[in-house]
Amino acid sequence: MTQIRISHTTVYHYRTAVSLNPHRLMLRPRESRELQLMSHTLKVSPNATITWAHDVSGNAVATASFSGMTDTLQIESNIELNLTGNPWPIFNIAATAINFPFFYSNDDRADLGALAIQQYLDPMGRLQKWARSFVRGPAPDTLELLKAISHGVSEALQYEVRESEGTQTPNESLDRGRGSCRDFAVLFAEAVRSLDMGARIVSGYLYDPQSTATGSSGSGSTHAWAEVYVPGAGWINFDPTNRSIGGFNLVPVAVARDIRQLMPVSGSYLGAPDAFAGMEVEVRVN
Fold it and tell me: How far is the C-alpha of 192 from the C-alpha of 186, rounded, in Å?
């Protein structure tokens, strides 16, 4: 068992006092058999009314509602949890899905829905051709195929820290040959979807006390990866940024069909168009 503490602080600065609209906060980790949440505190300044709900994907979402004016907004999330994942997991894949291609049951296919459909336009089928280049033989091992695609993403892209908002399309990533962890995750998920498998994007934190993993160093280092649904085994974590499989060092906060749905903090304000002066993000995982 690994005990982890996470602090995640976001501060917004405004040149003049503004009125804050409700802000959506996705900062509470997703509890599971391998993740036991011991405590989570959320502090917001100026004072806000906090309400909680679960979205369509089962993520815990807080809404902070404000009154009055302010020139600073600070949101601080502090987490204590235990991770019990196996660094060398064994996946009990159903016999019908051991080899690719395989078929989901009617219920699984219906429930996966858009998670098994490409989200980015690929009119020339370029991404699918790229994904199919990893299919070796008429019935390759499914898990080995997924590992090969994950490694292929890591080989195709050079990691870069990209502070700008938004995510590259899969074809943009292939063209540029570089990207952030969220670009790695989107390229992998879309490649898997092009092969008719269900995948979703995950946002959270990477536990790396030795600071040897890619994407774990520096302030503000949240992390992104993907999960693939394989019958029998269920959702399997793939972190193409680090060529890893399983969630022994990953702390998921939220899952979604599209990376745009996974902003840790989102909201707006009423005030002068040029009132926003900047923001600071600090993340510590230890």
Answer: 10
Enter the DSSP assignment of 157: -
Q: CATH assignment of 95-262, given 3.10.620.30, 1.10.1760.20, 2.60.40.1180, 1.10.3300.10? A: 3.10.620.30
* Bridge-based pairing state of the strands 69-83 and 35-45: antiparallel
Q: What is this structure's pTM? A: 0.95
Q: Indicate the SS3 state at residue 127.
A: helix
Strand (E) or helix (H) holding 188:
helix 181-193
Using DSSP's 3-state secondary structure scheme, residue 53 falls into strand
The pLDDT score that the predictor gives to residue 6 is: 97
| Token digits of residue 179 | 């990207």
Count, residues in the chain = 286
Query: How many CB atoms within 10 Å of residue 183?
Result: 27
Identify the bridge partners of residue 255 per DSSP, sorted by sequence position.
202
| Per-residue pLDDT tens digits for 35-85 | 999 999 999 999 999 999 999 999 999 999 999 999 999 999 999 999 999
Write down the pLDDT at residue 215: 64
Q: Is residue 282 within 8 Å of residue 209, measured between CB atoms?
A: no
Helix, strand, or coil (residue 233): coil
Is the CB of residue 167 less than 8 Å from the CB of residue 186?
yes
Q: Is the predicted pLDDT of residue 18 greater than 70, yes or no?
A: yes
What is the DSSP pairing of strand 269-270 with strand 265-266? unpaired
Q: Say how far apart CA 194 and CA 204 lie, in whole Å.
A: 25
